[in-house]
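Extended Data, panel c. Modelled sequence:
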Amino acid sequence: MLSEADLIAKRAALRWLAERHPQWTHQDLADALGMSRSWVSKWRKLLRQADPGDGIALHSRSRARHTPPASIASQLAVVQRILEIRVAPPENLQRIPGPEAILYYLHRDPALQQAGVRLPRSQTTIWKVLRQAGCIAQGRRHKPKPLEFRQPGEEVQFDLKDASSVPADSEGKRQHVVEIANFIDAGTSIWLHREVRSDFDAEALFEVVAQFFCQHGLPSMLTFDNDPRFVGSASGRDFPSAKVALSLVCGGDTQRDPAASSRQKCLRRTISSLAWSGVFTGASARHARGGRLRSTSAYLSHSNSERPNQARSCGNQPPRLACPAEPSLPE
């Protein structure tokens, strides 16, 4: 297949040969150029209409349609018939026809066939007509709203993270062998507290939250996801878990946020990818818990004081450097 540059050269040669040998026929020019007779006939007509010195005339013409086809919306008979089929289905259909069924009945309509109008070929066209007529409601897109900026000590995010480097126990737990309970201040991204255990249940988490309240104070809002150990029953409003009840009795606010765990994704991924995983190879859950406790203690200091954080409040600086003051929580 010839490239555009080769075709431009062929057209230039055609114009030169036609000027030098006006007596040559289209077939003679086609034989000399190695092209078809129809190609020579087409381009001789185009070059004859253009200026002999115009180089743009040698370029290919656009193959796009110059006159767009008649719009279906402009053909009132077709639009009216689409709406009639939608409201009153033919042939005792006994259901509301969709675009596929409407398209089927349109092409079988004898009145439209005699009128010679242009009928739609795509279901998308039927969808557009039905939407414009109000037969199909358009779904509203909910634009995501940015998270509200929290002040230091206003919100604490609470979540659990599996210590994925701890191997499964062949005679015990296969999943969640060792977990880490993380408490992070949302306003400063400072890692406030962590607890490492292998037996996290609702009772153990109640003790962890109570211990955090005693050591750090009660935040205005404690955010967590929909883990059953956090929220208790599905109707958490009527039957809150003990942890939620503790926060409410103490005067704080709790908020179930399914996206709360994703906010800690960067920190949690970093915890999982630490190079301390070799400590737990072949270790039991009890020894793994002790090793992970030492690991998280070292990383807690590193995350707060050395590791740059991309949160808005930190500005790619370590949280302790960006926010030197400790987030103060009410006692």
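The beta strands are 155-162, 179-185, 191-197, 221-224, 253-256. This feature is highlighted in the accompanying rendering.
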